[in-house]
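Practice problem: predict the structure.
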Amino acid sequence: EDPLREVLKSPRATLNLYSQFKAKNHLKFSTGEDVMRLRLIRANAEHVADYNEDTEDSAGYALNKFSAMTPGEKQRYLGLNITSMTPGPEDTVLRSGVGNPSKLLWTDKGYVTPFNDHLTCLSFFSF
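Answer:
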């Protein structure tokens, strides 16, 4: 059983988890909104625990800044933000003539950087 599942069994532990989440993410809500955000966190914590208990999936899941967002708020982070991009001429695309490899792991090449949250630039997450 996922440790998060144990937390969710206790209302007091769930409130403590929510308080820690708000502190970590520097969040403050009015009383009415706080109740709604707690419900979102609880529902998302249930999903996280479900995913972590899936024995066929080796990934580890956790609550993140999206866990207390409404679907409308999450929508702002979807899609490509091209507001600062300027198009280049089509003929600048380079073509080497070499086919794509059947497998390429950027981690093996040392090109993958640590996770970065770009906060308000709306470019979602980059690696």
